[in-house]
Design brief:
This protein is 64% helix and 0% strand. By secondary structure, the chain is mainly alpha-helical. Among the domains are: 76-138, no CATH class; 311-390, no CATH class. Helix 1 runs antiparallel to helix 2, helix 5 (77-84) packs parallel to helix 7 and helix 6 (88-97) runs parallel beside helix 8 (123-132). The chain is globular, with a radius of gyration of 30 Å. Keywords: Transcription, Transcription regulation, Transcription termination, Transit peptide.
Length: 395
Amino acid sequence: MKARFSTFIQMHFLFHISGNFFPSPFYSPTPKGPVLKLCRHWSTFASATVTTTASPLAESLDEKVAIEVVGDCPKDSTDVLRRWGCSDSDISKILRRRPALRSANLADLQSKLNVLGGLGLTASDLVKIINCRPRFLGCRLSQCFDEHLQYLQALFGSREVLLKAILRNPSLLAYRFHNDIKPIIAVYDELGVSRKDFVTMLLSRPTIIPRTSLNSEKLDYIRKTGVSKDSKMYKYVVTIIAISRIETIREKFANFEKFGFTDDEVWGLFGRSPLILTLSIDKVQRNMTFVLGTMKLPASAVLNHPFLVFFNLEKVLKPRVLLAGKIQDLGLFPQIKGPAMFRALRMSEERFVKAFVNCHPKKVAAELMQFYINAKGVKRLAESAKRIVHKGFPF
């Protein structure tokens, strides 16, 4: 009997729910459903066990509790998710992405779902969260959750923006408040990045908090770009350098030097167009080779027109340059050369076709359009064999 009462105490503690505050990972609002009923049943049976010795009620305690639990409480995690508002389709997607949830602790799962529901997240939002962060419901949320939540809402300015940020990176709720979030925000404050700009960058690059690391070398890189704190590019320069590895920055810097750029030119390019640091070495090499070899432009053209290394080579640069050559061979006008080439490359697809293809007679336009489509259809060697698997964060 003593051992049995000890078991009751542990289970009562496990399922106890307090409704003192806004939902948190440890204290959830008093539910109308099964968890509260389970606590009531345990309390009823506990008193019977304490006041009665070797009674028939005590002898069949385990059996009766099992019957009550099946009658009033979720039978498994699927039932918990369904009662929370998930459809069968949602549950299927969630369990396919995170099969371990089938054996999750029901009280813990219910508590975390109460937190998400209190924030205003829906079943479809939960599917997105589990898709990009499968272990989210298995993580322990911040112990200072109330303070954590209030701070984040003040940082983002509204509940709507906060929810958008959580969907972009659910780990915002799981990061350690005093050890992870506040110190990183303080670092950006010290560098002169305003809270508004920091929020903008956090929404566009959700992993800023865990990936930020700064040392003297990175601070020197920021200074070399020559971007002032008042510049609109400053927040991009600081955050991209802060989240990049030193080795990666060095490799990408050396890659531009191979094409004849000086140190000052490369840092100036990074300052004017910091997103260049997010491009792969392979993409920069292929675009630069095409600009220098096929378009016959000097390397300095990229300094004035950075979009040349951003555009897709197979879908934009190569087809439009080849079409320009075809128009020139046929002696048609308007031709795409000189400054007009840069304007043509920056046009939207619809505007480009209207300006340089459909402006000709139907027969000629049809021939040019077929040539343009064929040029766009040429794939990179072995591109079809490339395996691309997108799981979790797409960045």
